[in-house]
Amino acid sequence: MTTVGILGGTGPAGRGVAIRLASAGHNVVLGSRDEARAAEVAATLQARGTGVVSGASNEDAANCDLVVVATPFDSAIATVRSLKDALANKIVISMVNALAREGKELVPLYPPRGSMAAQIAFALPESTIVGAFHHLPASDMENLDSELDADVVIFSDDAVARDDVAALVNEMPGLTAVVAGSMSLASAIEAFTAVCISINIRHKAHSYVKLAGLQH
Length: 216
Ligand SMILES: NC(=O)c1ccc[n+]([C@@H]2O[C@H](COP(=O)([O-])OP(=O)(O)OC[C@H]3O[C@@H](n4cnc5c(N)ncnc54)[C@H](OP(=O)(O)O)[C@@H]3O)[C@@H](O)[C@H]2O)c1
Description:
This protein has 216 residues and is an alpha/beta fold. 39% of the residues lie in helices and 23% in strands. β1 (3-7), α1 and β2 form a beta-alpha-beta unit. The protein is globular, with a radius of gyration of 16 Å.
């Protein structure tokens, strides 16, 4: 059992990851700028497994065994930088996408280092950064009855951390880990989220990524 902290865990993305981790038996700390709000949100999540979801500060979430960054992209760097010491020597998962809305489409934004994962890696030189969960529709993640059967594309420069996160993802109901490779792929993987969301807007759908031809 791993205790996972989620920075910005009160949003749809964090809640979706939290409920599926808890369903797999892991304890989750939803981090927030407002502990009372986090406790309220945590109380609304009904996991079916044995894991407990609690609400706390982002500082408390950063002290967990493994930490997920689930804030909006424009506050992710300030958030992780302020928690740098607590995040040192542990795996930090980035699910952050830098996107902008243009009419009916989402378009990718490119941070100076090419991706949000690379920006976070630069801000946290003593942490091990892994990218995951970028393409998942939060509403389906949070709804355990949604029959979600999605692939989770994972990347990192650290092969052991990549495999550790893949193992964790494979425990989460409805998700299958697909290790893509190194941080060099981060920009393309994050940008593809804009394609996924634009497709869903155009087709009024809740599609998600499921890669054909892989043998799990
Ligand atoms: N939504 C999705 O379907 C989805 C799917 C995959 C990946 N993602 C990515 O996951 C991240 C979160 O998405 P989301 O839709 O959950 O976002 P969100 O609801 O806009 O924000 C998530 C949480 O971040 C905190 N937050 C907001 N502004 C902040 C600030 N200025 N400084 C620090 N914390 C702040 C808030 O928590 P408190 O007010 O409680 O602090 C908020 O509940 C994004 O980077 C997104 O690209 C989203």
